[in-house]
Sequence to fold (330 residues):
Amino acid sequence: MNYISYIHEFEGKYLSKYACKSADTRGREKPLEPCALRTEFSRDRDRIIHCKSFRRLKHKTQVFLSPEGDHYRTRLTHTLEVAQIARTVSRALRLNEDLTEAIALGHDLGHTPFGHAGERALGDCYKFDHAEQGLRVVDVLEYDFKGMNLTFEVRDGILNHTSRGKPATLEAAVVSYADRIAYINHDIDDAVRGGIITPSDIPVEFTEVLGKSHGARINNMITDVVANSFGKPQISMSANYKAAMDGIRDFMFRNVYTGSLAKAEEAKAVTMLKSLFEFFVKNPQQIPAGFGLLPAPVEQKVCDYIASMSDRYAVSIFEKYFLPKGWDRE
Fold:
């Protein structure tokens, strides 16, 4: 059985005319021999799942730094929630689930330790954007600095997953919406768990539209995206849902993302990463060889190295170079 031909035939018959068919991929920079069982997008998904950058996401902050508890989100669990939401939307819209999943699983590979606080720290030191860094991870840094050689469509989706991006496929646009739906709702859940806000603090004009519980909001937002996008060449929300989503996001920025007790330690993380940046720029010989040999300015090499760190590894490197050690003559 020619399995790939069967998948291509199935996609041609079942998927929306606006879907990105596996047979129509714009391909890779370096062509590969076709796989007998997987489409090119499936192969990209598998490459992402098995790469080191993906595994390190489990020890990278989502919103709350070093939370005391097992149930707060990390960058990895956020990624999995985005992938679940994105696949649900993609399936309902008859888009390419394999492409959607690959983009969703890879969308945050470029994130720094300590979440957006780390991104701000590196952005203050040098030009840095986690979406652009994500593309650099898959193009340059992964697979022992040879790059992962992913398809154009997955690379485009990683680069354009933020709200300001202009993705080339509807699948990537789905991931962009899924990212926002996921983080708004799970950050509310985590903030309530941490005692930062209570459910009754959320303005009623938003909960009346989106829903009064975590599950209801996710279900309603997904349903609205599907209802407003089905059979259309674009992904969108209805005007009242979009306004409510933006409103609840603003509420989270005012009450959780900035100034709350849960964010009190962020200044220390920023100071630590800026100190590491300055140290490695002045001492490039201390950068590990793989990063140090990259054909890039030293500032870019340092950003590559620091952005790759997990939270706990960044702390250990800071301790190594900045904290005094005991001395024993023996």
